[in-house]
Design brief:
The protein is mainly beta. The protein has four domains: about 140 residues, no CATH class; about 110 residues, no CATH class; about 120 residues, Jelly Rolls (Sandwich); about 190 residues, Immunoglobulin-like (Sandwich), CATH 2.60.40. Helices cover about 10% and strands about 40% of the residues. It has five helices and 45 strands. The strands form nine sheets. Strands 21, 23, 24, 25, 26, 29, 31 and 32 form an eight-stranded antiparallel β-sheet that branches. Strands 7, 9, 12, 15, 42 and 43 form a six-stranded antiparallel β-sheet that branches.
């Protein structure tokens, strides 16, 4: 009976253990639930705050887009910061376009005021007046003051036409200010800095940009200035400042171009302006709008057997595009990873050797540096004058990629020495120029027969011995007791006496001229004009005798120019002529061909594409020098100082209950810079 009762229920200890386990599970579940709930509340609060903060700035940005900078008023009067901003806009029902009146002026018909209200809960409010009666600037400022004081338009004479709504609550910070167009060039150490001078309305044609010294930082020891690049067009094209020297006008010292070796400055030059007094100024004249290409190193540019180099042979130095080549296209030391050494024993007489120049089509390839026109082979013997290498015959041919010890019949070309097919090499010797083209994606064999002169050993070939770590692939094939017939046999793969080796003997390098043809294709440039009227395509180039350079230009409305004609149907352009193209996006291509001997290349120095720039607001800026002796610079355009944009600093908060964790305050901050009339910001 006792045994039966014990088996039909739990003991007290078992029950208590079960309760303890359940308590732990329930506690863990509740803890997870509370954590998830707090996380969700935290995320929701942050999302709500971000939305409130950005709602204000985006609304203000949208309204400012519809006004004119010279009509913007900030309150309270003075240098700022400000708590309210007011300006007129054109209020439209639907999507009707804004049309000027009979006098060519915009018919402003509404006023918007964004203002701070310090109530029980601080708020940003937007008061909207529509329709708008004609007001003077003084009357507009009085209206802003009333709205700020009352929090709405209740006491304004036009209150019947006004409505106010709250844009954001729980403010910690709300400040409006103007973006300064003055660049302070002071820094503890010399350097460079990107500067923005604000925006201005530019019409088509030439404009004058004047940089004035207006003071200096209290820590600066001088008023110097310097410019690397300028951006002063709607297309945001970058202009090299040194290209506009000397300036159109100046007051004070003359600026000059300073060559920089470290590569941190665009074009490796910067303009130095040794200004010494407030009021010193320099004026550049630049066009709205154009694309100037002087450095050729932009992302998206394509180089096909061409390269952009910095040419120091001209003064001033400059970047140019030229063909690749005219140098050592292959070297034994690189392929074998060995510096070379004098041999301890000569190669036996009547030994045929084939040195394999491994291109991209073979394993452990890629040792041909470029595609070249014409070749010169450099042979190397023992360094000491008493030891020589006698070559009876030598030729170059294309290697069969399936059997690299064989050459493709019909591709062989004889290598000669001063017109002779044989040569005794003392130390080193180079062959004559040989009409043979080298391509990186192919491999080649330089074959030669070593032969003694009477009984004197003349097989002292320099040797490059590949280290064991890299001795995986053959670099030379050797047949002893060979003849001219054996040397000329294209098919060595059938020979049983063939010796393959990772080392190289006798052949030090292969030199080649410039590539037989090359192309430079620019990046696709965005004019930011829907239908630009192109005016000119021009360029500067140097074409030595026997070389040629042809330019092409195309355009389209798709960003990738998929709607543009292919290059093979684009005609060659005429320098200085109006290009027959249409479309927002434009691209340029250059075709370069060397001289017949491969030793001269044309060089493209720069090119420009001009079009009629539209009347638009343009962001003005550039890259400027900084230093401990630099001053403060102000930019004037066409004889007038720049008007300024508006910046907004906004921080809002929310106290969120986190359950047992109590309340926590979350904040969201936004800083925004904006300008009227479509500045692109």
């Amino acid at each position: 009976m006792r045994r039966l009762l014990r088996s039909s229920g739990f003991t007290l200890i078992e029950a208590l253990a079960t309760i303890a386990v359940l308590s732990v599970v329930i506690a863990a579940t509740l803890s997870s639930f509370f954590y998830t709930t707090r996380s969700e509340r935290r995320a929701a609060a942050l999302a709500e705050l971000d939305l409130d903060a950005r709602k204000v700035t985006e609304s203000l940005r949208r309204d400012l887009w519809l006004t004119s900078r010279d009509l913007v008023l900030l309150y309270p009067p003075g240098p700022g910061p400000y708590t309210a901003i007011g300006f007129p806009i054109v209020y439209r029902e639907g999507a009707d376009p804004i049309l000027p009146d009979e006098n060519g002026r915009i018919p402003w018909n509404a006023t918007v005021i964004y203002h701070f209200w310090q109530g029980t809960t601080p708020e940003v409010r937007r008061t909207f007046f529509y329709p708008l009666l004609t007001q003077t600037e003084a009357e507009r400022m009085e209206q802003i003051a009333r709205v700020v004081q009352d929090g709405d338009a209740r006491n304004d004479p036009h209150s019947a036409n006004a409505r106010t709504r709250v844009m954001a609550r729980n403010l910690i910070e709300w400040w409006l200010n103007v973006s300064s167009p003055i660049f302070d060039g002071y820094s503890e150490t010399p350097g460079r800095k990107t500067a923005s001078f604000g925006s201005v309305l530019l019409t088509p044609g030439l404009h004058e940009f004047t940089f004035k010294v207006v003071g200096r930082n209290s820590r600066s020891s001088g008023r110097r200035g310097g410019i690397d690049t300028l951006t002063v067009t709607p297309s945001a094209a970058t202009f090299e400042a040194e290209a506009y020297l000397p300036p159109l006008r100046r007051q004070g010292p003359l600026p000059y171009a300073e060559y920089q070796l470290d590569g941190t400055w665009s074009g490796n030059y910067r303009v130095i302006w040794p200004a010494g007094n407030d009021g010193d100024e320099i004026t550049f004249q630049m066009e709205n709008d154009r694309w100037e290409e002087r450095n050729f190193l932009n992302t998206g540019a394509l180089f096909e057997d061409t390269e952009a180099i910095f040419d120091t042979s001209r003064n001033p130095h400059e970047f140019v595009v030229q063909l690749v080549g005219n140098g050592r296209v292959w070297e034994a030391a690189l392929q074998t990873r060995s510096s070379g050494e004098n041999p301890s024993n000569p190669i036996p007489s009547d030994t045929a050797l084939r040195v394999l120049l491994r291109g991209n089509n073979l394993a452990d390839g890629g040792w041909l540096n470029f595609n070249g026109t014409n070749v010169w082979a450099g042979f190397r013997a023992h360094d000491e004058i008493l030891y020589s290498l006698r070559i009876r015959r030598a030729f170059i041919a294309e290697a069969d990629p399936a059997s690299p010890m064989n050459f493709i019949p019909g591709t062989e070309v004889t290598l000669s020495f001063g017109g002779a097919t044989n040569r005794t090499v003392w130390a080193a010797a180079e062959t004559d120029r040989t009409a043979f083209r080298v391509q990186k994606d192919k491999s080649y064999l330089v074959s030669f027969l070593v032969q003694d002169w009477e009984t004197i050993p003349m097989g002292w070939a320099r040797q490059w011995r590949t280290p064991a770590d890299f001795a995986q692939m053959p670099s030379i094939y050797v047949v002893t007791n060979a003849s001219i017939a054996v040397l000329n046999d294209p098919n060595w793969s059938r020979r049983s006496d063939l010796i393959a080796s990772p080392h190289i003997y006798g052949l030090e390098y292969l030199r080649a001229g410039y590539a037989p043809e090359g192309y430079y294709t620019s990046q696709i440039f965005d004019t930011h004009e829907e239908n630009p009227q192109y005016l000119e395509f021009n360029w500067r180039a140097i074409t030595p005798e026997g070389t040629s350079l042809t330019m092409q230009i195309r355009a389209g409305n798709d960003p990738d120019l998929s709607d543009a004609p292919s290059w093979n149907v684009v005609p060659a352009a005429t320098a200085g002529a109006v290009p027959s193209i249409s479309g927002r996006y434009v691209q340029v291509r250059a075709r370069l061909k060397p001289s017949g001997d491969g030793l001269a290349t044309p060089t493209l120095r720069d090119f420009i594409v001009r079009w009629t720039g539209s009347t638009r607001i343009v962001d003005l800026g550039g890259v400027f020098t900084t230093g401990p002796d630099h001053g403060q610079i102000e930019l004037w355009v066409d004889g007038a100082p720049l008007l300024q944009g508006v910046t907004v600093d906004l921080t809002v908060y929310k106290d969120v209950s986190l359950g047992r964790g109590g309340k926590k305050r979350f904040t969201s901050s936004v800083f925004a810079e904006m300008s009227p009339r479509n500045t692109g910001k």
